[in-house]
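User: Here's a structure from my thesis project, written as structure tokens. My advisor, Dr. K., wants to see whether a designed sequence matches the one we expressed. Can you design one independently, without my sequence as a hint?
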């Protein structure tokens, strides 16, 4: 039977995502009511700038006092789309203290304080949902947490940042350098004026921490995620990748160790073969490739950012949380029972593409090969070519290795840099997805 008393929602933040959430709640009110089994009402909207015109939102709902909105006693669900650590963290905690379930899109906060927030929600018998925090509209957290709850996930590899994928795709398709592609991304609104969070991999690392915790039923903090940005990726790297039948993506890679006793979580640019499904993810799209023991390989693909796509994920969570409220139940909370340690980057085993500028004279190749051998890194292929700038005394040497621990590779590179005949290490890139 349909309940007539509405479930009341406090919207905390009304920017690009919040305004879309409010719009969809209004325009789809009847469908949401039918799906939930009770009307759902926007009861207050907390903003920083009350004078801003917000089309479609009753000005009487606007307040600058988010805390008072949460404390007024009639709110059932809070939607936090403010972003950042504070005041979002305090507001979410306040919501739990006042019996209010929370839907959040806040990856930075969840990656940093997810454990404490889950504990607070659990103690209060409330929900904390955050599908929108990772890869925008793409259903990912619920499939990992619920649909695959009976399976064992061994690996998650994803493109979880649209800005960097747009830049890398431009470099790949036009031969542009990093700066030129970034400028285009900025002009088209894909990159922010300060792109640091995206291009240095911080945004992807937060998403990686959240996904790793859910996929492996353990706790992975933002600080556990190894992170390298993509600002050093060059047009020459793309040319090398092409020669290998690869492209370059900024990847979040989460793996369970072969012995099952630990996990790794990392974000860095990597070459992947053109035949890999992630290689065909173009422009600002996101995609996450999941390898599970019974299910096999799954790929989730779609828009990873933007007001309406992110609002879609928020609204999905709102419906779920409201249904739980009506059933006087809560959905799944944190599952961290495996308590697997997160291994350092040095333990990660993968392949490498290393480009060296070397003296072009007898014995150099042997010297370089010895360096790899001494560090236990086995070479797969070597390609040497005279430098295009002529000279004749220098050559470019590209070495692709078999799988080896990252620490062994670092040791190799350190030793290579000390060789007189190695004039420079032009680039080191991991090779994934084979
Ligand atoms: N800035 C992010 C991206 C979207 O480019 O994918 C929000 O996480």
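Assistant: Designed independently from the structure alone:
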């Amino acid at each position: 039977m349909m309940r007539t008393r509405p479930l009341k929602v406090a919207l905390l933040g009304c920017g690009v995502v919040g305004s879309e959430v409010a719009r969809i709640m209004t325009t789809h009110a009847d469908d949401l009511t039918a799906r939930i089994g009770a009307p759902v009402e926007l009861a207050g909207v907390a903003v920083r700038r009350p004078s801003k015109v917000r089309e479609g939102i009753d000005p009487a709902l606007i307040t600058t006092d988010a805390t008072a909105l949460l404390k007024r006693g009639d709110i059932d669900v809070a939607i936090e789309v403010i972003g950042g650590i504070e005041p979002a963290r305090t507001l979410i905690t306040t919501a739990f203290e006042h019996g209010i379930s929370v839907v959040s899109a806040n990856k930075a906060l969840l990656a940093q304080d997810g454990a404490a927030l889950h504990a607070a929600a659990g103690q209060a018998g409330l929900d904390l949902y955050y599908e929108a925090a990772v890869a925008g509209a793409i259903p990912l957290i619920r499939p990992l947490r619920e649909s695959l709850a009976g399976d064992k996930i061994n690996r998650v590899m994803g493109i979880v940042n649209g800005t960097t994928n747009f830049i890398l795709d431009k470099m790949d398709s036009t031969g542009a350098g990093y700066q030129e592609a970034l400028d285009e991304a900025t002009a088209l609104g894909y990159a922010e004026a300060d792109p640091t969070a995206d291009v240095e991999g911080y945004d992807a690392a937060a998403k990686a921490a959240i996904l790793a915790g859910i996929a492996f039923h353990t706790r992975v903090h933002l600080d556990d995620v190894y992170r390298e940005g993509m600002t050093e990726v060059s047009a020459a790297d793309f040319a090398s990748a092409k020669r290998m039948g690869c492209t370059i993506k900024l990847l979040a890679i989460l793996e369970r160790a072969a012995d099952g006793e630990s996990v790794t979580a990392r974000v860095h640019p990597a070459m992947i073969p053109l035949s890999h499904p992630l290689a065909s993810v173009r422009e600002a799209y996101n995609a996450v490739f999941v390898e599970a023991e019974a299910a096999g390989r799954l790929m989730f693909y779609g828009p990873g950012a933007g007001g309406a796509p992110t609002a879609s994920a928020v609204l999905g969570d709102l419906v779920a949380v409201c249904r739980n409220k009506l059933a006087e139940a809560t959905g799944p909370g944190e599952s961290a029972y495996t308590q697997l340690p997160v291994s350092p980057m040095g333990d990660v085993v993968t392949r490498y593409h290393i480009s060296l500028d070397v003296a072009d004279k007898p014995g150099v190749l042997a010297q370089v090969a010895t360096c790899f051998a001494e560090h236990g890194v086995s070479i797969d292929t070597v390609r040497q070519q005279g430098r295009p700038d002529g000279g004749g005394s220098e050559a470019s040497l590209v070495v692709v290795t078999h799988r080896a621990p990252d620490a062994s590779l670092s040791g190799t590179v350190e030793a290579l840099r000390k060789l007189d005949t190695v004039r420079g290490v032009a680039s080191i890139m991991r090779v994934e997805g084979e």
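When you compare it with your expressed construct, this may help: The chain has three domains: 7-136+308-326, 143-303, 346-431.
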